[in-house]
Amino acid sequence: MSQTERHKPYPDPIFYAMKELKITDPKRVLFVGDAQTDIQSGLSANIFTALVPHSMSKQKLTSKPHYMLNSFDDVLSLCYGRGIEIAKDEDLMKEKQKKKQKKDQDQEVEEEEE
Questions:
Q1: CA 12, CA 20: separation in Å to the nearest integer?
Q2: CA distance 36 to 59
Q3: Which of 36, 31, 34 is nearest to 61 (CA)?
Q4: How far is the C-alpha of 44 from the C-alpha of 16, rounded, in Å?
Q5: Angle between helices 12-20 and 36-44 (to 10 degrees)
Q6: pLDDT for 18-47, tens place per residue?
């Protein structure tokens, strides 16, 4: 089941993902795809786009991505070259745990004060 009514090339799936991840600055988002609809969706969302064309000819592009990559392996090089920090799942989990611990501690303090 889809989380949005409209799909690519509309930006709705990207906006949904940004909302879920609590990302408000589109300049912090890079959308990597292998199809024209991926690039159209990213550009419509006003975020950075990168295309890994695979079998798609560069001449067939009607929307120009910010970056053209040879393979998905190039994504990390692109991010590190631009100084973009890559969050790993384990980093996200640690951050989530810290927030929960802080919330629990704050709640305990409030209960003690009552």
A1: 12
A2: 11
A3: 36
A4: 13
A5: 60
A6: 999 889 999 889 999 999 999 999 999 999
Q: Give me the helices (H) in 3-44, please.
A: 12-20, 36-44
Query: Counting beta carbons within 10 angstroms of the beta carbon of residue 35, is it exposed (0 to 12), middle (13 to 18) or buried (19 or more)?
Result: middle
Q: 61-70 as b/e, with b when 16 or more CB fall inside 10 Å?
A: eebebeeebe
Give which of 32, 26, 70 is closest to 49, Cα–Cα.
32
Kindly state the tokens that stand for 101.
């611990």
**Closest C-alpha among 33, 40, 30 to residue 6:** 40
Q: Virtual CA dihedral for 40, 89, 28, 54, nearest 10 degrees? A: -30
- pTM, entire model: 0.66
